[in-house]
Design goal:
This protein is an alpha/beta fold. It folds into two domains: about 1-115, Alpha-Beta Plaits (2-Layer Sandwich); about 150-310, 3-Layer(aba) Sandwich (Rossmann fold). The protein is built from nine helices and 14 strands. Helix 8 links the parallel strand 11 (about 245) and strand 12. Keywords: Cytoplasm, Methyltransferase, Ribonucleoprotein, Ribosomal protein, S-adenosyl-L-methionine, Transferase. Belongs to the methyltransferase superfamily. PrmA family. It is found in: Cytoplasm. InterPro entries: Ribosomal_L11_MeTrfase_PrmA, Ribosomal_PrmA_MeTrfase, SAM-dependent_MTases_sf. Its EC number is 2.1.1.-.
Length: about 325
Amino acid sequence: MQWTEVSVITTNEAVEAVSNILQEAGASGVKIDDAADYQHLQARPDEILDLTDIPHRTTGAEVSAYYPETVFVPEILPTIRQRVQDLAKFGLDPAPAEVTTQAVADESWATAWQKYYHPVRITRYLTVTPSWEAYQPVQKNEHVIRLDPGMAFGTGTHPTTQLSLTALEMVVRGGESMYDVGTGSGVLSIAAKYLGVDRITAFDLDEVAVRSAKTNLALNPVAADVVAKPNNLLTGIHEPVDLIVANILAEIILPLIPQAWENLPAGGHFLTSGIIADKLDEVVAAQQKQGFIIDNVLQMKDWRGVIAHKPTEDD
């Protein structure tokens, strides 16, 4: 089968949004080459791979999507270009937003992204590794999250994911119940299980994301009991949990805030990430207006994460 590769040259901050645009246009897979991932690795001299052996971008990012021959790519290109340009309206800089296409053979796209994906220590306790590598923990209490990025959603190394994982390490004490909203790859649910969360339901509006999450959950036996299903944020969900985590864009966090309030008990935590710096004040103000108390604001590059909780009688 012949495939068409559609590539978008963009900024680090727009990677996840561009990936979503390409997938919503019918892509069967996405490859992400983000210079920020490699800058992070270069800053860690203890990493286990030699970056000189890995071809990669040195600036910005390239998101490449793959479409089967059953999709008439010229018909969807104008919409893709327009939606990428429109990201500026949401506070994300997509520039240069260059969109190109090329034909690729079936065997080429199926493995093209593998050379970009290697084990990476994300936090003190969590390491993300591709499913095909036989990586073993090298330190006590190191948990290995195995992911298959074949349907894309990144490698778990994007700053927004790292902020979410860090927030989970700060908040989880063990035995909690949790909603993972906009689960994508399922990486946050898997990490939460390793950290001791008891009961987790993962939601995503995108059926492709739900399938991807289920695939990755199956790769990690610790997450065997996580339930992943399609849903629009927490619409129709009325069963309180101890913890809600959402790594999504600020514009999507805003309508989630009242839903999170309804589904958290007093003392329950609300962890949000995917917030570009310019949108932080708006998100924090909306949470405070709802009644949440802001505990911490985490920062990595241009991204922010917020740890908040629903007040108790002692607050």
